[in-house]
Amino acid sequence: MSHALPLSTRFPALSGFAPLTVPNYRRFAGSNVLAMSATWMQRIAQDWLVLQLTHSVAAVGVTTAMQFVPSILFGLHGGVLVDRFRRRRVLMVTQSLVGLFSLLLAVVALTGTATVWLVWAAAFAIGCVTVVDNPSRQVFVNELVGRDHLKNALNLNAAIFQLGAFIGPAVAGGLIGAVGGGWAFLINAAACCVTVFMLSRLDAEQLVPAPAPQRRPHALREGLAFVLRTPAIRYSIVMLAVLSVFTLTMPVLLAAFATQVFHLGASGYGLFNSLVAIGAVFGALASTRMVHLRLRTVVLWGTAWAAVLALAAVMPSVQTFGAVLVATGVGSQFFFQSGNPLVQLTATPEVRGRVMSVWVLVVLGGQGIGGPIMGGIVDAVGARGGMLIAGGVPAVAGVVLSVLLARRGSLKLAVSAHRPMVAITAR
């Protein structure tokens, strides 16, 4: 009797796609392509609508803040909820709410009754839902594929997210120019309905058992203590924090380059976002080849990503600027696909939701802080000066952090993506 060899043995180059052999994950990933594309369409339409209503890049920065400030205010409590309830049910509720808010934006945009305050209110409401949705989505991957496929599943999720970031802005740019951005909001509302339907159709018996939800006293404090006492998580999040405040404010910067530097309008804004996404798709897929996850890799990739972004500030033409944007997309994914799995695999299942809520808090909260800051900087010093600051500050911070960690021996921290137990060493 012959037995089929595992995918990674028969085709080593395709081992990164092994999670797609899991039916539940395959369904989840398929619906995510549509969901992520529609999400990016809404982001582009939302930013452009605010720019049309106010003619201010700083106002676009405020829009970013409205969507991410809830993570600063409530983000850690979101992780407590994720560890307390069944993740699939949580996702079904959060996606239903996002769909309702998207439908509201579609109505006001299509009827010409939108105001900047209403858009900001909707962005804030969606941000409140995201406080729970994002860590739930991150942790739910464990239940779909288990530990053996977790790292590659996270890589594929990132590739899907960035594929959406490539498709969404391109479609949104054409849609805005042809019929207006209101339809982008309507498409996102429909995509949320598809996601809820998909979640309801997953085979519950095939999900990997998760720790039973439980109410624990001092649950929030317990999660924070785990983050602070675990060097692999603590230092990864420090690097992430600096990048989130400065480097992840790309929508504000790209809107400024599209309007102030290259004068390309909405189509140029969509093009620039799509170029970043092209690089990110390649980076997410290429990063599946990483087997050993090291803190050293997290810090160095974060530094390289920021340095390339600073280089974009001096590019003289659309062509050279676009080429560097592709490189920033690659760098961003090597950072996230070394940092995110390292954090998840280091955290124990009982606190993983709370640990990932800290990660999400830093990603989204940093953008909430950085959005208006970078918007104000761009208004003060111009798009090129803003881009130089957005990349230069995290690059310098990464170098400083590298030196400090090297002196302490903390860059020796590592974890294997394929071992049943997390192995961490430090000197």
Automatic annotation (TrEMBL):
Keyword Signal among record annotations: no
Origin: domain of life: Bacteria
Every Major facilitator superfamily (MFS) profile domain range: 1-410
Bilayer topology: Multi-pass membrane protein
Cell compartment(s), UniProt: Cell membrane
UniProtKB keywords: Cell membrane, Membrane, Transmembrane, Transmembrane helix, Transport
Kinase recorded as keyword: no
Segments passing through the bilayer: 57-78, 153-176, 237-262, 268-286, 298-315, 321-343, 355-374, 386-406
Pfam families recorded: MFS_3
PANTHER family named in the record: INTEGRAL MEMBRANE EFFLUX PROTEIN-RELATED (PTHR23513), STAPHYLOFERRIN A TRANSPORTER (PTHR23513:SF11)
Protein's name according to its UniProt entry: MFS transporter
Protein source organism: Amnibacterium soli
